[in-house]
Design a protein that fits this description.
This protein has 174 residues and is mostly helical. The chain has one domain. It has eight helices and no strands. The protein has helices at residues 2-23, 28-62, 65-79, 87-92, 97-111, 116-127, 131-141, 150-173. Helix 5 packs antiparallel against helix 6. It is extended and about 65 Å long. The relative contact order is 0.10.
Amino acid sequence: MVAIVGALVMPVMLCGILLYGLFKRVNVFDVFLEGVMDGGKTAVSILPALMALVLSVTLLKESGALNVMVKVLDPVSTRLGIPPEISPLTLLCPISGSGALSMYREILNTYGVDNIVERTASVIMCSTETTFYAVAIYFGGINIKEIRYTLPAALTADFTSFVVSSFLVRLIYG
């Protein structure tokens, strides 16, 4: 039953939009084309920020800088109760969702499941945001150049999530 409802959501919404447009006497196709044009302009405006982000993540991983950063931050993360095995994940989560996902898969392949490392990594993956990506895309999409307090607040939330996730997993699973 759920699969049937799920399969029908988009067609029903599309028909509803078309019927509403016809009822309001709106040229639905012209409005659709306007929306596509606006979407294209938005895509072009966020492309430089997206390209810079992808390049940064690739350079970070391929240059070995990620490993250096993990080594430098190891004493701090250990003191905060974050397993050192997931330090690379904590560094990639705010930057890149796909980079963090590949790091998460690597953690699963290396350490398996049902252990502190995997559980902590799982909770972190579910409770953090790709901060730099979100700021670059959303602010770039509406041409906001001054992000003011957004980045420090979002990174503080990510940091808090890393620490609290690690603490709660240790508390619950020992």
